[in-house]
Specification:
Blueprint (H helix, E strand, L loop, with lengths): L9 H11 L5 H13 L4 H15 L3 H10 L8 H15 L12 E2 L2 H20 L4 H18 L4 H16 L10 E2 L2
Parallel strand pairs: 1-2
Length: about 180
């Protein structure tokens, strides 16, 4: 707690601005929703990114979420927090080894892939417009999970990449992945 006359850090200023605009409780949901929409990722992964960024910036998760929320009110995100967020998102995107093609077997139906991918893009747009909406958070999380299961990938980003590759290969008339795959209905 700063003493009278002591300057307040930019992180605390951003957090105070968010609280002043009535965002204290919703700040965490807003930050998670925005990360889910922009990364894209599941709610679990967004929480991990938020926690990692807070650790990197040496602030609490609540202060980071409040500072992120304050950006919607016109406050600038302090450079240290922005750098930490960028690093945490990049680490989440490059986590693990890249997955190779699916094993021989049934590949998802291209129409189903397109349907789920379109729904995911709609959820991203909905979350970008209203990151604090609990229904939009659940819809994005459910759709990201569905795509991960459908594509057999552990993260939403890998599943999106695999789905886009599968659709591109289908448009060219060749199923992607290993030979001998058949479309599941």
């Amino acid at each position: 707690m700063p003493t009278p006359g002591e300057p307040i850090s930019p992180t605390r200023q951003a957090a105070a601005a968010a609280r002043a605009h009535g965002h204290p409780v919703a700040a965490g949901n807003w930050a998670v929703g925005m990360l889910m929409a922009t990364t894209p990722c599941s709610a679990r992964d967004a929480l991990r990114i938020l926690a990692t960024a807070a650790d990197l910036a040496d602030v609490s998760v609540e202060d980071l979420a409040s500072a992120m929320t304050a950006t919607s009110c016109g406050a600038a995100l302090p450079a240290r927090l922005e750098r930490a967020l960028r690093r945490a998102v990049e680490a989440a995107r490059t986590r693990g080894t890249p997955a190779g093609p699916r094993a021989a077997g049934l590949a998802p139906n291209p129409a189903r892939i397109e349907e789920v991918l379109t729904r995911l893009r709609g959820c991203q747009a909905r979350l970008a417009a209203s990151p604090h909406d609990p229904a939009a958070l659940r819809a994005m999380d459910d759709t990201a999970y569905t795509l991960c299961v459908l594509m057999g990938r552990p993260t939403a980003l890998e599943a999106i990449t695999a789905a886009e590759e599968q659709l591109a290969a289908t448009a060219l008339g060749t199923p992607s992945g290993s030979s001998g795959q058949r479309w599941a209905v």
